Every structure is written in structure tokens, then in C-alpha cells.
Amino acid sequence: MSAPSGITRVTLLKDLRLEWRSKDAINSMLFFSLLVVVVFSFSFDPSAEESRQIAGGLIWVAFLFAAVVALNQTWAREIRNQVLDAYRVSPAPANSLFAAKVLGNFIFVTVLEALMTPLFVVFYRLRALGPVWQLLLVAGLGTWALVVNGTFFAAMSLRTRSREIMLPLLLFPISIPALLAMVQATTAILNGEGARFWIVLLATYDLVFTTVCLLLFETVLSAE
Amino acid sequence: MKKLFPIFGALTAILLVYALCMALVPGRMSIFGIPLGEGAPTEQTMGDVQRIFYYHVPSAWTAFLLFFINFGASIYYLATRKSAADIVALVCAEVGVVFCTVVLITGPIWARPVWGIWWTWDMRLTSTLVLWLIYVSYLFLRRFSAGGQTPLLAAALAVLGALCVPFVYFSIWFFRTQHPQPVMGGGGSIDPRMMHALLINWLAFSCFAFLVCWSRYRLEKLQRDVDEAHALESLLDPRGSTR
């Protein structure tokens, strides 16, 4: 039996290679969030000062919706040839698989954010008044919060009827505190105010939910 | 246990009537000369509208209590896999969502004449709404997931949902203390007669919730037994069950 980290690495590399060849998730996420940006800018038509107030919310809502697109595809691939069933009967630890999927999704969503943020800056004429490195920290922590819970709930909604609808129904209510923290932190930094409380809250949220998801994932994976 | 059910039901009904009188009728009450305590007086500034408080607050406490039991039962289920714990979790979530809905409906009815608005994104209102959303999503999961895996998935979600509650309160508390909102009531002490009516109502509502949970528990247990019997029957005699 290979080490847990080995399984994580192999699965992660396989997912990245598949994504690199097909570019299914990243293309649909990019186009989807582009649509959200355009639709929002039509519905608000903000000035530079206003957009600084609302941009935090817009960016994160766009990323949240786009992340759901990728998260829904996470496990779909493993069902097609009963890969997941094979994994379940193998002695490999479930958490290695979970870690690989979370890291994979984290990379996809981060790439999306890196590509979309310049567009946001241009479309909404944004200029941060606070330190930019804090924005990077918020982006990292916030993406992690979405992706950990999202991967977990995607595995959960795999077992339900109409699974594509189920994921946002489960993910959004639980993510409300994290979303609030991300949006408030981003808005505070853009306006040059302190965001320490929100960053600490987000880090705690990440810590708690990562731990619990790791504890419960095996149960969810092997639920019969 | 079954014989206790009607007795408990009758007691709850009496308690609910008594609590209703306490909440709605000011002044002393007595039956055949036996004093039964004093109803809550009318509030000076808000008037009779304030009496919705005796339904609003006990419903909220009952809902929180039920959600807490749901959390405990879910953890117990994850540890032991006993189907009774799963039924308790399901029943508490269902009844809790109903009570939470009552809270969310009676709140605006009170707020409209007193604050002049139906809804405000105040801390308590927002966090109760988020709590309601979390448990509605729990019920959705139970409804949409198929067969024997439902209890496990639901228990996992219940644990995550319950862990989310402190984050919800904490984040919304900070979010809202930065932007002051209309302050309600002015705080301070509460008239002991009002407190009495409030606590009696809470007791009555808790008994009522327990009664509903009990009967729902029996129904769910029966339903599962019937399903099991059907499954067994079709296993033993595949042709007989198809008709």
C-alpha cells in the first residue's frame, strides 16, 4: 500500500492532467464568471467610488457561482467508470482522495481568480486604498473555505437525486459566515480600513471546517 | 409508553390554554375561587402588540432547543449508528424548522407597528434567518438523498451546520455592531408578571413541541417498519409482490 501523500499526489496530478487536456472546468468557469461580471455591470452601472463599495460583494459572488460549476464536475469523472466504487473497496485512506480533490479545486479556482481579477479591476475601475498583500491573504483563505466545503458537499450531493441542484442548496447556507467575512474583508481593504477581525474569523472558519470535513469524509464516502 | 401519550396530550392542551390566558388576559385569574396567578399586564408604550412577544420568544427558544437536540442526536448516530437517534434528529429538525418559521413570521408582525418596518438586517433577525436556511437545507438533503445512506449524510450535514452556528452569530454580530440599528425595547428589567407569562408559555410550547415530536417519531418508526416489511416480502416472494 502506498503512502497517503503518494495517493494524494497521483490523484492530483491525474486531475490536473485531465483538466489540462480537456479544459472543461476552467473554460466553463471563466466564461460563466465573465457573464456574471458583464451582467452585474449592466445592472448597477457604478461610478469609481460606488464600485469600491460593492466590488467586494460582486467579485465573491461571481467566484462563488463559478466555483460551483467546477465543484459539480469534481466527482462526476470518478463515477463514470465506477472509479469511486473501486476506490471505496481499496485500502487507500479516503482522506488522501479528499485532499487531492480539494487541492485540485483550489488550484482551478485560484487560476480563475488570477485571470478574472484584472478584468474586474478594469471594468469597475478599482484601486485598493489598503495593503494589497492582505487581499491576497483574503483570497487564499476565502477560496480555501469555499473549496473545502464545496468538495465535501459535492461528494455528499453525489448520493442524491438531481445532484447539480443539491450542491448550492447545501453549500450556500453553510458558507454564509465565510462569504460575509470575505466580502467585508475585501471591501474594508479596498477602502483602506482594517480587516484584521475578518481575516482571523476566516482563518478560524477554515481551520474548523477543514478538520471536520477530514473527520467526516470517510463516513460520507463509504455511506451505503 | 403508548398509554402515556393521550395523558401527556391532555396535559399539554391544558397548559397551552392556561398559557394563552396568562399571555392575553391582564389581571388576576381564578376558577371556583382557586387563584391561578396573574396575567401579563399591557405594555405601556407598545400596547397589546407587545403580547406577540409571548409567542415569539418561546418559539425561538423551543426552536433552538430542538436544533440542539438534532445536533446531539446526529453525533450520537455517527458514533453508534442506531436508527432511533436518526429518527430523533429528523423529527427535531422538522419541528424546529416549523417553530423557527413561526419566529420569522411573528417577528415582522410585531416589528411593523413598533419599528415601522417589516424587516431589518439586525443581528438577531439575520442570524435566525441563516439558522432557518441551514436547517431547511438539511431537510432538502433528507428529501433528495436516496435510501439507506440518508441518515449518515444528514448526520454529517447536521454536525457541519451546528458548527456553523457560532460563526454565523459571531460574524453577524461584528457586521452589525459596526452599523448601529434601531434599538429595541430599551432593555432594563421585565415585569415579573410578564416573565411569568413568558416562562409558562415557553413550558407550554416545549411540551407541545415534545408532543408533536413524539407523534412524528411514532409515525416515522411505523413508516420504516412498513418499508422494511415490504422490502423483505419482495425479497422472499418476488412474484407475489408485483401483482
Kindly list the characteristics that best describe this protein.
heterodimer; A: mainly alpha; B: 243 residues; mainly alpha; 2 strands; flat
Write the layout of secondary structure elements.
The complex is a heterodimer of chains A (224) and B (243).
Chain A: H1 4-22, H2 24-44, H3 48-74, H4 76-80, H5 83-89, H6 94-123, H7 132-157, H8 163-190, H9 196-221
Chain B: H1 4-24, E1 27-31, E2 34-39, H2 53-80, H3 83-115, H4 123-144, H5 150-177, H6 192-236, H7 238-242
Antiparallel strand pairs in B: 1-2
Question: What does this 3D model show about the protein?
Answer:
The complex is a heterodimer of chains A (224) and B (243). Chain A has 224 residues and is mainly alpha-helical. Helices cover 84% and strands 0% of the residues of chain A. Chain A is built from nine helices and no strands. The mean pLDDT of chain A is 86. With 243 residues, chain B is mainly alpha-helical. In chain B, helix 1 runs antiparallel to helix 6 (192-236) and helix 2 (53-80) packs parallel to helix 6. Chain B has helices spanning 4-24, 53-80, 83-115, 123-144, 150-177, 192-236, 238-242, and strands at residues 27-31, 34-39. Chain B is built from seven helices and two strands; from the N terminus they run H-E-E-H-H-H-H-H-H. Chain B is flat, with a radius of gyration of 22 Å. Classes of the chains: A mainly alpha (224), B mainly alpha (243).
